[in-house]
User: What shape does this take?
Amino acid sequence: MCNLYRMTKVPSEVAHWFDAVDALGGANFGAEVYPGYPGLVVANGALRRMNWGFPLQMKGKSGQMLKPKPVNNTRTDKLDSFFWRHSFEERRCLIPITAWAEAEGPKGRMTRTWLCLPDSELFACAGIWRRSDEWGDCYSMVMTDAAGAARETHTRMPVIVAREDYAIWAGGGIDAARALCRPWGGEISLDRTDEPWAGGASQSRLL
Assistant: This one.
């Protein structure tokens, strides 16, 4: 599953690619996006900055409220659960990315393997979003079974939305959107690196 991804294109390129209004207002964002960090999404026809992960309230051993954790990924078979249902039915978005990363190697010495579409420098993953008291507008990425080369790194991967299906995911009916929640049928490229898997990339949750 995806706990780290890259978005290296400038906002003007992204807005043009998705035929979206640039509503960023000059906001900055990092090229590498971790759970709990801000990223770019296309929602309601506009390119916007949101926080990656729905806040999940946690309690300590004594019942005290802890700092919320970002739930940055959701499984396709859980979209009808209470936590996700209204966002899936009413607030779907597209997440622009240039590559996503998976951890490979022995524990304590894991490295980053980057995955991308070889025939596209920019593509979209399926997302859902909502407003939160904790972090403002936030989004989560939808996960499906891994396909092709992605199966070498993990059992799950992001739902990749083909360009011709952008409008269906963003504003189509529920059944039509659900039909897009399937493994990617195109080619996927792997780039195994010696970059350490560390930092915010390990701080994620999947529901």
Observations:
- DSSP finds four helices and 16 strands in the chain.
- The helical segments are 11-17, 85-90, 166-171, 174-179.
- The chain has a mean pLDDT of 92.
- The first helix runs from residue 11 to 17.
